Amino acid sequence: MIFKIFKKNCCPYCKKELEKRPSRKKACPYCGNLIFVRTRPSDRKQVLVTQEGRDKIDAEWREVNGTAGMYKEEQKAFREMKEKLRKRFNKEPSERDVIWAVFNKSADSAMKRQDLAALQTIYSDMAFFLKGEGKDNFHLLQQSQKMYLLATKRESSDIIKGVEVLATIPDSCPACTKLHGKVYTIDQAIKEMPIPNKNCTHKKGCRCTYIPVLKEL
Question: Which one of 75, 143, 197, 204 is most buried, by most CB atoms within 10 A?
């Protein structure tokens, strides 16, 4: 019997073997096409795929996670904003401009509704987007944490007396390790904004979070 051997480190476009298997999105050194790295939900194996393959696997994950409906709404908002910007500036807008405009529209809508939980998520998503562009996202991470604190004060002040900083021990920088376990009242945390820690030196940035401190019954 003859077995066909497939090389795992081949470009999914030109099929040429790569010198080193990429761990994230990278252009093929031979054909120049973007190679994407994805984990299949069916067998949890990491594979190198084309853009079409990436979209297919991403769609499969959305079905697994139950977020397919949310994705459709996001795509609809993207298409509508793209058309709006095209008419406004009489030219094709960049994907980046469309995404940022959708973020701002969502943030404005949440502000009008005073939906602090939604603002926390939106600012966090905006920060993640800026990080992907290699830009400073500290102010947005700070706004996201502030929305959490304001929402906690408004909605849970009868049962929560404060917040405790939880660092990613032991994988934290010295500055964040010092913050670990510190307790603040909600007002103190809003005033001092200890996290995200501006003195963090970890390569991934500050990953500290708050956990609520309940009032004694």
Answer: 197
Residue 112 lies in a domain: no
DSSP 3-29: PPPPPTTB-TTT-PBPSS--SS-EE-T
Q: State the residue range of the domain holding 32.
A: 1-66
CB atoms within 10 A of CB 143: 19
Strand, helix or coil at 165?
Answer: strand
Residue 118: inside a domain: no
Within a domain: 45: yes
Q: In what order do the strands lie in the sheet with 183-185?
A: 183-185, 160-166, 209-214
DSSP for 119-159 reads: HHHHHHHHHHHHHHTT---HHHHHHHHHHHHHHHHHHHTTT
| CA–CA distance, 32 with 25 (Å, rounded to integer) | 12
Q: β-pairing, 46-49 with 160-166? A: unpaired
Count of beta carbons in the 10 Å neighbourhood of residue 163: 25
Query: pLDDT by residue (tens digit) across 95-141?
Result: 999 999 999 999 999 999 999 999 999 999 999 999 989 999 999 99
| pLDDT over 70 (residue 59) | yes
Joined tokens for residue 192: 């001092």
35 within 8 A of 27, measured Cβ to Cβ: yes
Structure confidence at residue 140 (pLDDT): 97
pLDDT at residue number 7: 53
* Phi/psi at 47 (5° precision): -135, 160
Q: Does the pTM of the predicted model rise above 0.85?
A: no
Q: What is the tally of structural domains in the chain?
A: 1
